[in-house]
Amino acid sequence: MRSKAMFLWAFSPLLVANTSAADTVGTVQFEQMPRCDFFAIETNSGFTLVHRLDAGLDVEHGDKITGHLTSVGPDGLQINGGAKMYAWIDDYMVNSNRAEAYVQDRCK
Question: H/E element holding 84?
Answer without folding.
Answer: strand 84-94
